[in-house]
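Kindly go through the entry underneath: sequence plus fold tokens. Please state briefly how this chain folds according to its tokens.
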Amino acid sequence: MIKAYLVDDEPKALAILSDKIRRVCPDIEIIGTTQNPKEAIEFLRESPPDLLFLDVAMPEINGFEVLQQLEKPDFEIIFATGYDEYAVQAIKHCAIGYLVKPIDNDELVDAVSKAKENISEKSALAKNKALIENLQVKRFRDKKIIIPSQEGLEFLEIGNILHFEGIDGYTKIHINDRKPLLSSQSIGHFVKMLHDQDFYQVHKSHLINLNHINSYLNEGYVTIKDTNIPVSRNRRSDFLTMLKNT
């Protein structure tokens, strides 16, 4: 059994989530719930669970601030949020689970399944600390994303990523001043994560960091670090318009 603790300031939302977990996730044991973030901090310090369901938007202390006040948050987290673009992106960058309210049963089961896999890998502390660090960084390019690899977790500063290259369902990540990294995630995963944030998908298989462009060739290629990357015909016009406006 996975021991879980639930935090949400809204009593109705807390009751609904508790009921859903009991009905569709029978291997999750709810060891406590609270509407009070301060009470949650005390509980998590004294009796850390395996899994924390944590609401993001709460008065006085939000979910991120709860996490920031814990010295060693070494439990898996599934954040619950209304569709807050900033919150979702911050969570995604650190490979942490989240659910958008109203919570769908299938999405809940999927999030719990991934959390169980992560619990066995014991990677929660590193990911949670990365999220805390990112929340304190103002410039997007200085933030980090976490890439699971065969050796463990890779923490990549976003500004050092040159471009992503989709290859047979995997993604080759080209990084400034180091060897490329292969991710088991498809390029679509990174497009969703970094959409409209200094990155542009110039081709179905290529997502580039706009800050590293050296030149654009009339033949339909953009050059980054002596590498020519194709720009698909149907994206050239929008891409060139975007470059002129930046």
Remarks:
- The mean pLDDT is 92.
- The longest strand covers residues 28-34.
- DSSP finds eight helices and 15 strands in the chain.
- The longest helix spans residues 105-121.
